[in-house]
Amino acid sequence: MDRDHYTKATYRGTKDFTQQQVKTANATGFGAAADDYSERGIDLNEQLIRNKPATYFFRMKGDAMREAGIFDGDVLIVDRSIKLSNGKVIVAILNGELLVRRYHQNFSSAFLIPENNRYKPINLSEFSDFSLWGVVTYVIHSLS
Amino acid sequence: MIAIVDCNSFYCSCERLFQPRLLHHPVVVLSNNDGCVIARSDEAKKLGIAMGVPFFEVRSLIYQHDIAVFSSNYNLYGDLSWRVMEVLRQFAGQDQVEVYSVDEAFIDFSQIDPEQIERTARELRVRVEQWTGIPVSVGVAPTKTLAKLANRLAKKDKLNSGCVQILQTESQRIRALQQTRLEDVWGIGRAYARKLNARGYTSAWDLANLPDAWVHREMGGVVGLRLVRELRGEPCIELKEELVQKQMIATTRMFGVPVTELKDIREAVASYATRATEKLRRQFSAADTVQVFLICKQTEEDGGWRGAVSSAYTKLSVATGDTLLIIQAAVCLAEQLYRRGLVYKKAGVVLSGIVPADACQGDLFAETPTDHRKLMDMIDNINFSQRDELLVFGACGTKRHWQMKQEQRSKRYTTRWEELPRVGDPGFNHSA
To answer: How many angstroms separate the CA atoms of B365 and B158, rounded?
Structure first.
């Protein structure tokens, strides 16, 4: 089995297009010079979704992560295929509830850190019941 | 070697993914119309909830043990199923994977070094669970039938198997066959099980050791023989072999409430006809026979397990995949069948006489009805890309109070923007 094949990003978009889709092509098959430079428009999925079957969307509730730029009502893009590591913003499962926090780990213990001083960091050693749901990769925030 | 990957209590696992507090809690999922239990978590199985049992029979057990109950949420299950299959296809390669059902797939492991099979299977199991959130079990063996059997054993003892069971050596195979009752073998129906039990055969091992001639005579000829050979480790069922176009397509539903009015029956039958025709077009087929049946609510006199059934069919002059023509035929049949004063609980539309859509034979003497193929393509396209049922046919009605009950359905977390799972601080509520 080809190992690279299944570790690389999966969303490939639709790079292929046929002559029929090139708007300025005429019956002779020759198009305007600009056709040589024509390409597919930008597709947000390509940027925001690295691994489609492992990517889920959540809606943020609360202001605990304000300083990290995550506000109440924002859409979170969460990739389950990314490994847990220091400093990542994650969707955590803590005592059966889903929570967004920054994961921080030092040599002796691990914490879930809020990005809002009204909330307290959670020391994970006190809780046996922590697991990772997924790593937040992007936030979609509406300005209106 | 061939592997089968099978999701653990698939529907229950889908529900748990977005409600992690249910992770070690008993969960059941109900069928259409909240009639029967169709999926149970291991915890619910232990509490004695049987597969397929009517909801009302276990209602008290459910409340007593605080079992979480869900109506089926096919939008959610469909999306998660796609994710699981996609991870498998990326792992093993598109052509190596045969999707067998919504929650199971066979994978060709023949290219994998025998030394690496167990490691690969375990890697695969971890990968699917980590990426999609759905736990799976993996069985690997020389044949499909043995792989199914291995998978079953992996699931039965998850703690020891780690949800992976490999049958690579002769002794592993024999042990597995001895541990499996013959009625649990893939493809052994209840009738054969009874027949074999009556002759004193009980295990899959007994089954594998039956003489060929006897199997051929007593167990449906070649089909039975293939099954027994598969148990002996000789591959007889190829990957993807069983994928055939359906020869009959049916959409049948229970009504949410008992129905007495012709208007409601018409709408329901038109909706089911729409759905069935959609399925028909999805496999690029056309059908020339439309059958409709109506089932009454059972009454004292019936005594049996269901109410009176009435059914009728009609043959169209040409096979078609046109929803409008099929609705026309189905509604007409429904009108013939309908009797005022009866109380109906279920209806169905069955399409048969199925042929490939581009090979429809015209009737020389009949006027060819206009086929709205272009229109149908457009409707399918819109309904598929814009979520189902954006475009509906007028005959299907708009209020649909006969539609099935789904009182405990969870959110469509992965297919609707307005139903995304909410994550954050439970006490927080200063905006919508």
So the answer is: 64
pLDDT in tens, chain B (432 residues): 999 999 999 999 999 999 999 999 999 999 877 778 999 999 999 999 988 888 888 989 999 999 999 998 888 999 999 999 999 999 999 889 998 888 999 999 999 999 999 999 999 999 999 999 999 999 999 999 999 999 999 999 898 899 999 999 999 999 999 999 998 998 887 888 888 999 999 999 999 999 998 888 888 788 888 899 999 999 888 876 544 556 788 888 888 788 888 988 998 899 899 888 888 888 788 888 999 999 888 766 655 556 788 888 888 888 888 888 899 999 999 999 999 888 898 899 999 888 877 655 555 555 555 567 677 777 766 665 555 566 666 776 666 666 666 678 889 999 889 999 999 876 664 443
In the sheet with B344-356, reading across from the earlier edge strand, the strands are: B249-259, B344-356, B285-296, B309-320
Residues 24-83 of A with CB under 8 A from B: 51-54, 56-64, 72-73, 75-76, 80-81
Position B289, amino acid: T
pLDDT digit string (tens) for B122-151?
999 999 999 999 999 999 999 999 999 999
Answer whether A135 touches B (CB < 8 Å): no
A73: left (phi over 0), alpha (psi -120 to 50) or beta: left
Where do we find the tokens 């119309």?
B33
Between positions 4 and 43 of B, the ones with CB within 8 A of A are 18, 20-23
Structure tokens at B53: 């049992």
**CB contact set of B427 (below 8 Å; sequence gap of 6+):** none
Distance, CA of B312 to chain centre: 26
Total-model pTM: 0.74
Binary contact (B431, A51; C-beta < 8 A)? no
Q: What is the ipTM, given to two decimal places?
A: 0.78
Put simply, whether A99 touches B (Cβ < 8 Å) is yes
How far is residue B208's CA from residue B233's CA, in Å, rounded to a whole number?
10
Residue of chain A nearest B432, judged by CA positions: A73
Question: Which of A60, A80, A133 has the CB atom closest to B424's CB atom?
Answer: A60
Out of B93, B132, B421, the one facing A58 most closely (by C-beta) is B421
Give the SS3 label for residue B247. coil
A62–B131 CB contact, under 8 Å: no
Decide: helix, strand or coil at residue B51.
coil
Contacts of B112 in chain A (CB under 8 A): 1
What are the phi and psi torsion angles at B424 (to 5°)? 150, -150
Strand pairing category for B27-30 and B68-71: parallel
Q: Do A59 and B130 touch (CB under 8 A)?
A: no
The residues near B381 (Cβ < 8 Å, ≥ 6 apart) are none
